Amino acid sequence: MVIKLRRTWKNTIKKYRTQPLKYIEPESLEDIREIIREAEKNSFPVRAVGGGHSFSNVAITGGYLLNLRRLKRISEPDTSCLKAGDYANFIEAEAGITIEAFNKAMEQRGLCVTNMGGIDNQTLAGAMSTGTHGTGIELPAFYGMMRSIVLVSADARVFRVEPSNGITDPEKHAEAGITLIQDDDRFHSLLVNLGCMGVIYSLVMELEPMYWLKESKELCYWHEVKEMLANRSLFETDEEGKQKYRGIMIQMTPYPGKNGHRRCIIVRHQLLPGRPHFKFGDLFRNIFTRLGTMPIFYWLSVALVRYIPKAIPWLINNSLKSLKDRSYINKGYKVLYQGVEYVKIRAYDCEFAFDMKDNAFVDAIDELMDRALYLAKNHKLYQSAPFGVRFVQGSGAFMCPSYHKTACYIDTPFLLHTIGSDEMLNQYQDAMFRFGGIPHWGKIHNRLFNYPGRMAEFYPDTARWLDSYHFFNPKGTFINDFSTRLVTSFEQQKAAL
Q: pTM of the predicted model, to two decimals?
C-alpha cells in the first residue's frame, strides 16, 4: 500500500478539503483490514474516497483517509460458490475502478451497464454509495445493478452481503475470512451507505449484453414539455405497452427568449435491434457538444458568467439551440455518457427526486424557473447552466431518494465561480422541499437538516438502515461530521416515533 503524510485531499470542485493524519492507497483486501485495525487501535476514524465527485463533506475526515484508486481489478465470479444459474453477464470488480475504465473493460467482454450518470470519472463504489442514478423510467438506477458486496467493517471483519435470495449458495460458500450475509435489510442498507458502514472492497454486478442506442435531441419550449409531462404523453409506449424510448431527459433554460417562451431540449434514447447500419456522421455528437470537452470553452464560459452576467440568458438559450442533433448512434455506455466532462467536473448543483404519482414535480420546475428569473431581474444573479430533468425506476435501497417510487430528478447545475450560486442553490433547495422533493446525497444538500420534522417522510425506513449501521459500525470507526449529524437526526426521529 502507499501511505502519505501531510497530504491535502480535495473533492473535484475543491469546495471540501482535508489534511488527514494518514492518506492511504490500499492495494488489497488485507491492506484495508490492516488500516482499520491500526486506526481502531489508536482511536482514529476511517473514511474512504473514490473520484471525489460528491459536493458535500461526506468523505471528509481528520483521521485515516483511504483512496481506493489502486483497487481496480476485474474478475469473473467464482461460479463454484454460486447457486445454479447463468452468470454470463455477471462480473466482480474492485471498488476503486472508475466507471470509465470499467466500461472499456466490459466492452471487450461484450457487456454493458444498464444505466449510469452522465459522466464516468466516478468509482463504482462511490457512485453506488452516494446514489448515482442515470435516466430511464423503466430502468434501475446505477446501484440497481449490484448483486453482491464485499465490505470491510469494524474490527476489520469482512462480509459478503447479498439480498435474502442472493446469488451465493450458503452451503458452497468457502471464501476464507469472509462471512456471508444474505439479508434484504443489510443489502439495501449498503446500496446507498454514504461510507457510514465500512469500506467497500468489491462488487458483483449484473450487466447486459452489449446493446446499441440511438440518441435524438428535439428542440421545443417549456409550455409544450410541461403539457407532455403533466399528461405523461412524453413517455410514449408501443403496441405492447412498453416504453418506446429506453431513456428520456430534458434540459431547459429558465430565461424566456425573444418570443417569450423558455427553450428546452428533449433527449431520447432508443434501443436498436442489434448492431445497426449507420452513416459515419451518426457516430459523433454535433460539434457544439464536443466543444464542451475543450478547456478553452469552459474558461470562456466562466469569463462570460463573471464579467458579462447579463449575457447568460443568451448563452444558455443559444447553447440549447446548438445542441439539437438529428441522431447519434453508438454502443450503450457511450451514449449514456453525456460528454462535456471538462465542464461537468467544474460545476456543482443540487438535485432532488420527486414521486411521479402526481404532478408536484411539474409545479416544482415552474417554481424553480420563476425563482431564477426573479433573482436575475431583481438581484442580477443568474443561473449559469441549463436545468436538467431525468426519470428513474424506484428502488428498495433505504437511503435512495427514489425509495419505492418512480422518480423525476430535477437538477440545477452552476459553473464554478458563478457569483451568487450558493444563495441561489439554497433558494432552489427550499423550493424543492416545499414541493416534496428529496435531495440526492451526492449533490449539494446543506438545507436538508433544516427540515428535521420531515426526515421520517423523506426516509421512512431509516430504523432499518440504522440497525445495519450499528451492526457494521458498532465502535464508530467510520464516523465523521457528516455521518454524526445524519445518524443523530435519524436517532432523534426514531425516538420520536
A: 0.93
